[in-house]
Design a protein that fits this description.
The structure holds two protein chains of two kinds. Chain A is of the alpha+beta class. Helix content of chain A is 27%, strand content 39%. Classes of the chains: A alpha+beta, B alpha+beta. The interface between A and B is large, with 40 and 52 residues.
Chain lengths: 142, 477
């Protein structure tokens, strides 16, 4: 089950996803990033956007994933509420293919507080905890 | 912050002695109260910056320092290329050349009182602000590159302002050495619809009144008198700068290991100044600075149009424009008495050259550089002046704002945006924002007392108090 939360940072916002798999944790982190902007419950998962990235390791892949979404949010003026991902290992590091579902920003309905400028290395962590749950987190600059 | 590790050098100056991997000491400029209130992470980040190759004299933190990424926000550090020095994308941050500019209006508070509500509505209608907002200007690829090379100078050529504006901007509105080819297509794509937009978060356009003057000579030189109305704009390089930060942070983290640079924190991502990557970042970052300068110039033009629409004949000449997220190539005399060409990183810190500096406009040179300190909606903003001898303290740098006292989550739990707007309106401050949640997150009490910060900057000999500005209207992104 996908879990997500935002966490405290003095100037900005931490985003954290958890789940039974790495994929669920990545989807949770993306949902937490939407929550840094607005209430995700107000965002309708209507239009699909395809996203792909690859990185040398899982932590860089999380940054690339969130930054790919930041780019789509900024250039399409969209917010996202649902994510379908696949992460596949390869020789040079993991690859990610995803569909993010969302809708154009509606200022009145979404009341977006701040745009995300980028995902940072601050508090960046991707790991499997002792209880078997996966965790994916970092601080995003808003 | 635990002060037991610090040596007090003066009422507002604390040394973090070099230890471990630190190549130089850390120096924190702050009152006892401010330094005690700082997170321990600030000392940790000051120490981490002090460990970077080629750092000169010390790793500095300004009175508004708080926990940032890699560098503290309010961090200053200079590097010498000839001594293996580095340039750090983390030391500049995502919002390249975020800054403040202040404009005169020639109006008094009484002149604005009668039209304040209409002025607030007109500015809110004319200034694109908030998440998802777009500007009216669309640049072709060639125009984009010309803007990235030319900065505010490009904007003036395109009809946004006058030559007189350029003399009142750092580097005369255009930083040399910008390389548009070092800027990714993704960065340019993010900027496509964002020229002349304010952004969101702590960015704003405010109409303010000078409600106290502390240095009559400097205020006179800057053209400020009690009761004068001014306009201040706080914003940066928009999506282009954010994407440059994203692109180069990633590349520098991977490359640092290959260059043999040990990063105590990956967000300190950097590259030797004498490397292809370091030079490419400098070219892209300077293009980001020019983008921010062009953006503030276009916003100035929009503000001028709005004022002229309501108050015909009113002009808004520029007082000054400062950037507070930059790396700039400057000549300084280091502690060993050598004149050196240094790359000064100021992350959440303002250049604050003292009296006599040749970079300053002739009319300001005898009092020092205007240092524009942003407020937080309901609280004051400040105009300071670079102090004599400030180049010997922190390479001519001072604070940039109040800094947050409370996280966004905590602010959201504590306040509702509608109530914040109503309470400020009752105090005569009109807020216009597309987002009540944004207003709640930016509530004035979520920030530290900017008065304490500027007092410490003054007492530390970084920049002296000239005038305090009280908000009348705030257009919040």
């Amino acid at each position: 089950m996908i879990g997500w939360q935002t966490f405290e940072h003095e100037a900005d916002v931490g985003v954290r996803g958890t789940g039974a798999t790495l994929v669920e944790a990545f989807a949770g982190a993306a949902l937490a990033m939407t929550a840094a902007v607005c209430d995700p419950a107000t965002v309708a998962a209507r239009a699909p956007v395809l996203v792909g990235c690859a990185a040398p390791d899982a932590e860089l892949l999380l940054l690339d994933w969130l930054n790919a979404l930041v780019f789509e949010m900024a250039t399409r003026r969209m917010l996202f509420a649902r994510f379908e991902l696949a992460i596949t290992p390869s020789e040079g590091g993991p690859h990610l293919r995803a569909t993010a579902w969302g809708e154009p920003v509606d200022v009145v309905r979404h009341q977006p507080a701040a745009e995300v400028k980028g995902a940072s290395f601050c508090e960046l962590k991707v790991a499997q905890r002792a209880d078997g749950q996966w965790l994916a987190q970092c601080v995003v600059d808003v | 912050m635990d002060t037991s590790r610090l040596k007090r050098r003066g009422p507002c100056e604390w040394e973090l002695p070099a230890s471990g991997r630190m190549r130089v000491p850390g120096v924190i400029f702050a009152s006892k109260e401010l330094v005690q209130a700082m997170d321990d992470k600030v000392a940790e980040q000051v120490a981490n910056v002090a460990s970077l190759p080629g750092i000169v004299d010390a790793s500095y933190a300004m009175p508004d320092a708080h926990w940032g990424y890699g560098f503290p926000i309010g961090g200053v550090a200079a590097f010498d290329a000839d001594e293996g020095g580095v340039v750090s994308a983390g030391g500049v941050g995502f919002d390249i050349s975020c800054g403040v500019r202040t404009l005169h209006t020639g109006l008094r508070e009484a002149d604005v009182a009668a039209v304040k509500k209409r002025l607030a509505d007109l500015l809110f209608a004319r200034i694109p602000a908030g998440v998802g907002s777009t500007g009216a200007l669309r640049l072709s690829a060639a125009q984009m590159d010309a803007m990235l090379r030319g900065g505010a100078r490009w904007a003036v050529k395109e009809g946004y302002g006058s030559e007189a504006d350029l003399a009142r901007i750092e580097e005369h509105g255009c930083v040399a050495g910008a390389d548009p080819t070092a800027v990714s297509d993704m960065a340019k794509q993010r900027q496509r619809d964002e020229m002349g937009t304010l952004g969101s978060g702590n960015h704003y356009l405010e109409v303010q009144v000078v409600d106290a003057v502390f240095d009559a000579a400097a205020a006179r030189a800057y053209g400020l008198a009690q009761g004068d109305v001014v306009v201040s704009i706080h914003c940066g390089s928009r999506g282009l700068g954010h994407q440059i930060g994203t692109d180069f942070l990633r590349e520098m983290v991977i490359a640092a290991g290959q260059a043999g640079i040990v990063l105590p924190d990956r967000e300190l991502a950097c590259a030797p100044l004498k490397s292809a990557l370091g030079q490419r970042y400098l070219g892209a970052m300077r293009a980001g600075i020019n983008c921010a300068l062009a953006n503030r110039q276009i916003l100035t033009h929009l503000a001028r149009e709005a004022f002229a629409g309501l108050l015909p004949g009113v002009r808004l000449p520029l007082l000054y424009d400062v950037s507070h997220n930059t790396c700039k190539e400057e000549m300084h005399v280091s502690a060993d008495g050598r004149q050196r060409r240094l790359f000064v990183h100021r992350k959440g810190a303002t250049r604050a050259f003292g009296p006599g500096h040749r970079e300053l406009p002739a009319e300001y040179r005898h009092v020092g550089q205007p240092v524009l300190i942003g407020g937080s909606m309901g609280t004051a903003s400040w105009v300071l002046a670079g102090s004599a001898g400030t180049e010997e303290r922190a390479f001519g740098s001072a604070c940039h704002g109040a800094g947050r006292a409370m996280s966004r989550n905590a602010a959201l739990r504590r306040w509702h945006g509608r109530n914040v707007v109503d309470e400020l309106a009752a105090k005569g401050i009109l807020i216009r924002s597309p987002s009540f949640r944004g207003v709640a997150e930016e509530a004035p009490l979520a920030y530290k007392d900017v008065g304490e910060v500027v007092e410490a900057a003054d007492r530390a000999g970084l920049a002296r108090k000239v005038a305090r500005l009280r908000p009348l209207v705030c257009i919040k992104g």
